[in-house]
Hints:
The complex is a heterodimer of chains A (about 290) and B (about 425). Chain A has helices spanning about 1-35, 40-60, 65-85, 95-115, 140-165, 165-175, 175-180, 185-215, 220-235, 240-260, 265-280; strands at about 130-135, 135-140. By secondary structure, chain A is mainly alpha-helical. Chain A has a domain at about 25-215. A two-stranded antiparallel sheet of chain A has the order 1-2. In chain A, strand 1 and strand 2 form a beta hairpin. In chain A, helix 2 (about 40-60) packs across helix 9. Chain B has 14 helices and 15 strands. In chain B, helix 2 (about 50-70) runs parallel beside helix 11 and helix 11 packs across helix 12. Chain B has about 425 residues and is of the alpha/beta class. The termini of chain B are far apart. The interface of A and B includes residues 120, 137, 253 and 266 of A.
Amino acid sequence: MDFLLNLLPHLLNGVSLGLLFALIALGFMLIVGVMEVINLAHGSLFALGAYIVIALLAFKVNFYLAFLLAPLLVALVGMLLELCMRRTYGKDPLYGLLLTFGAALVIEEVIRLAWGSGEKQLAVPAELSGAMLVGGLIYAKYRLYASLAALGFILLLYIFLEKTPYGAMIKAGAHDSEMVRALGINLTRLRLFVFALGTALAAVAGIVLAPIWGVRPHMGVDAVIPAFLIIVLGGVGSFWGAVLAGIMVGIVVGVTGAYASEWSLLSMYLLLIALVTFRARGLFGKKTALEA
Amino acid sequence: MKRNRRKLLQMLGAGAAFYGPWTVNRVWSQAAQKKPLVIGLTMDASGQFGASGMDERLGAMLAIREFNEKGGVIGRRIEALHMDTETTPATGSRIAERMITRNEAAVLIGAVHSGVANAISQVAQKYGTVFFNTNSSSPTEAGRDCHRVKFVWDGNGTNFNHAIVKNAMKASGRNWVLLTNDYVWGHQTSKSTRALIEANGGKVVEELLVPQNTRDFSSYLLKLQQIKPQVVATAVGGDDIKALRQQVVQTKLDKAYAWINNQQDWPDVYGLGPEAVFGVFGTTWYYRLDLPGVKEFVAKYQKTYPGVQIKVPGNVFLNGYLATREYLRVVEEAGTTNNIAVIKKLEGRKMAAVDRMQHHDAWIDPATHQVQQTIYMASYNDKPVEKDDIFKILTQVPPQEVVDQDAPKACKLETYEATPSYEQ
């Protein structure tokens, strides 16, 4: 019983961490789904979001307003990237991969030039900072708000994809882009929009995580690797698969961090290996023609 | 008479015009004719210690600049060649090999990560190239991983522990938790901390290993609260300690226990705000030490690097500077870059306190090749004189009192005969 009581805070902490991981992964997956391109610049855009908020705060912009503006600005960068990518459509997927890899390097170097290589701190408003008691243990208030924000964005994205005609178009585009074009939907515009939405989500995740992780030019690498892993774990293209996989990764990392700390980072890879060994398509991935 | 005076003035003017620049230019023209002396800067520009690597590079560049302004060394212009070792041992090996075999570097300078330093030193020893480990402080660097060609310029984990552990135990209690970065520096530093705690009647209740590049420390912090230690001793470095510090402050656990951070490198704490500095920690230098030359050195840094983010120099920068300057001085004294001649000049070398801007004279231990120097204990400064004044120096400990006694037993330097002769 004591063991379970000891374990409980770590499970809750894992869920909180997992929701943040899931938020990063969903933006990544949206682009993979519709564009069929792995956006290697996702991590750099994640970092850019945090840096833009820092810049806006320096101009005395209100924190919450900066939180809304920064993803929009990052979305514009994402749209620019999509315009560059158009020449790669229909060609070897390696071209798209290389382009986004190059973009990641460019964005990271621009960050270094503009803000320097050193660590920066994103200060949060007083009402979001401080600590609270959870079951006798002290927990950062901001972490709870960050988890709630992640959950809110996940639900909003779900409603958008499931309950609006735009969402239906995106899903259709991910399923069969040629058919969508045949139905008269402007696929070019749809791709532009999806890229903007995906990159805005990366920025949101970057801003939410910045006060926890700290802000540095290469912080995106720390985000994009778990995101990639979560997509594979959840099953490529599955919304709730990504959310569930995110939570699983969060719990595994959190619990191993407490009881076998040296295994905490490795644990997510072990989880992936274990799951993929028995279910190659991930938790909710669809069967391929070969498996049917 | 009037005419003679005019003629004399004309001759003096012509002489000044010719000989004035000529004395400088002659040195340069001679230096330009000779092969430049290439210093290979093996410093991280990315990865966990990217910020520190860039800081120590600026230090090395300042020393090189000073010598070049004097006309170089032994009549040779000095060229700096930097490659990013990426906080990765394999990259460190590859770059060391390349700098020695292709770029003909006379010396390799720079390291923050102990694994990288060890990897570079193995390559350097293979060729006989002198290597200065500027800022990596695992006790193994001048212990079991020592080499004839390697010189360690930073204080190591044991030096810092000697300065801190006893005092912390008296002030805060005997039940300790160790938070250890899961690589060689973390392991060796915590091993040394554990030995000192136990030797003084304390107890290590638990040791939590922190993988490198950990960004979320919440599970560790929850675990700490469940263990309820009196003291938490961290051996966590680079970007990891920055993230840890932020999260400790967010949860207000900085007030719950006594926090001991073995060593606090300046780039890891600069710009984070005074509230992010907590506990007691060790360092080898601070920019507001009340010692001769410190103010001038700070002014020189600011004049040389006006655009850098770190506005005042710290321990990492200083180590890069002092190590490079000492190498160039030794080459000048020896009149050669021959490795054996340089090594012999360095072994047992004494360096005056005033020259290094520390409280006590330093020396290079001939048995381990580690610089024995003053260690400072510091904490957060609650009465800062200016924005960057975030450290309060609590005390300074002479090098004799913090010597790592185990290092000479573990270190087996290669013989001179077994070290290849090398000269560039």
